[in-house]
Amino acid sequence: MSLLALDTLTVTRGSRPVVDGVSFTVEPGECIGLIGPNGAGKTTLMRAALGLLPHAGSSSLARMVPRARARAAAWLPQSREIAWGIDVETLVALGRLPHESRAGEAGRAAVDEALARMGLEGFRKRRATELSGGEQARVLIARALAQEAPLLIADEPAAGLDPAAQIATLRVFQRLAAEGHAVLVSLHDLTLAARHCTRLLLLDHGRLVADGPPRAVLTEDNLARTFHLRARILDTASGPLLEPLDVLT
């Protein structure tokens, strides 16, 4: 059973489509990278899929009532601001709000696992607002993980993280998919996308222009047409490496 199904999803601003007739499904076991240049419509697509923006077409998540949707999908937006001066453990536990068992043994176990996945066990009693920006980002990812939703939708979760933390976060997402969950994650780092995602969706001017395995999507032609970038993909022992060469005018 699909965890997310979009059918000709369209979002307009004025008379201009920002997301233009996008259709795809997300299945258990997939770690899907949503890629595209700035302004391609990635964030708008994710928000509309969650029912957070008015749209035409349909989204299986948007049709759900709020509590059911919160149990079906965890949402990690781009914004990383933490406004409350509470400790890390309490903040991560907020991910349990959709669940009736949030204060019980199952809830505590979910929080413990989320902290462990993000390497935050030693931060439990630290005040979240006193952490660095990258540490706060990891705490918010842990909050989304504690939700234990079948689907995680994350908008640029690697932004602001150091390279090691970026790789560690994508590996967490890979493990989630291997455990039978699914992840839909927007990324600007195409090497991270190529190495850690099972499938890529390439968005350009609101349209889905490619959908498939990373090496089938990240072709020189697609990179030139969509990103206006001359680049090549190198196959290395550690996985694909995208080498930007020049900007195409």
- Low-pLDDT runs of 5+ residues are none
CATH topology: Rossmann fold
Mean pLDDT, nearest integer?
Answer: 95
Tally the structural domains.
1
Q: At CATH's second level, what is the architecture?
A: 3-Layer(aba) Sandwich
How does the overall form come out from the CA principal axes?
globular
Beta-strand content:
25-35%
How many beta-strand runs?
11
What is the CATH superfamily classification?
Answer: P-loop containing nucleotide triphosphate hydrolases
Computed Rg = 18 Å
The number of helical segments is 9
- Pairing-aware structural class of the strands and helices? alpha/beta
Report on the structure:
The chain is α/β, with parallel strands linked by helices. It has a single domain (4-247), classed as P-loop containing nucleotide triphosphate hydrolases (Rossmann fold, 3-Layer(aba) Sandwich), CATH 3.40.50. It has 9 helices and 11 strands. The longest helix is centred in the C-terminal third of the chain and has 16 residues, at 163-178.
